[in-house]
Automatic annotation (TrEMBL):
One of its GO terms (cellular component) is mitochondrion. Keywords: Membrane, Transmembrane, Transmembrane helix. This is EF-hand domain-containing protein. Pfam families: TMEM65. It comes from Trypanosoma vivax (strain Y486). PROSITE patterns: EF_HAND_1.
Amino acid sequence: MRRMRRSVPSLITGRTWIKDYRLAGSAATLSQAELLQLAQGLESDPELLVNILRSLDPQSRRRLIVAGGAMEWFGKESVVSEVQRADADKDRFISPKDFDHWLGSALRRRQKEKCLTEVNDDGTDVPCRTLVWVAFVAGLPFVGFGFLDNALMILAGDMINSTVGMYLNCSVQACAAMGNTFSGVLGMQFHGVIDKAVQNINVKVPSLTERQMKSGRVFFAGHIGGTIGITMGLLLGMLPLLVIDAKG
């Protein structure tokens, strides 16, 4: 038996936590609550993670990267097998050469798995609910574009008709055309503002594969959504007519 005195920073527990563990061999066993506290501390302070990695020896860092990469790419059930695969010479030591060999092999296997997934996914299995959501997300910005375009055209055309148009003896169509020019120029300036406003709403974009996004059904759903959105925006943009007609 030997004793290990370990100090966990106050960031993890709210105070400095020093605890003695009696160890059998060289492995320490942590409870689930202690593991959770440690994980929360690492997530809340990136510097703590950097300091821990810096204190590890190179072999332990390589083993940690292999375990993390295996869990991220192939699932948590593959961690043990991937660590064993990385230890090519079975000496319980992952050398730099072993690590480079494993990393190249893992990247190739990951890419092959991704290609097989895309080949098997022809984009026809997108549910109708997802297609409706794709149409909604695609049409949302066009509601703002259509509203601004029509509202600005009507307001600018009416103002031109009642001021400059009277002196230049312009027809109603000419004033409307000048108003449309004004709304087009101003609409370009508001283009980015509308996009940012829609992004700030935090509408969740449907998660689709690259092949699904290129499928005809998803394209058609986005096209229909944009058409409905611009139509609704243009109709809403006619609201200034109520004010203008009331004044008239």
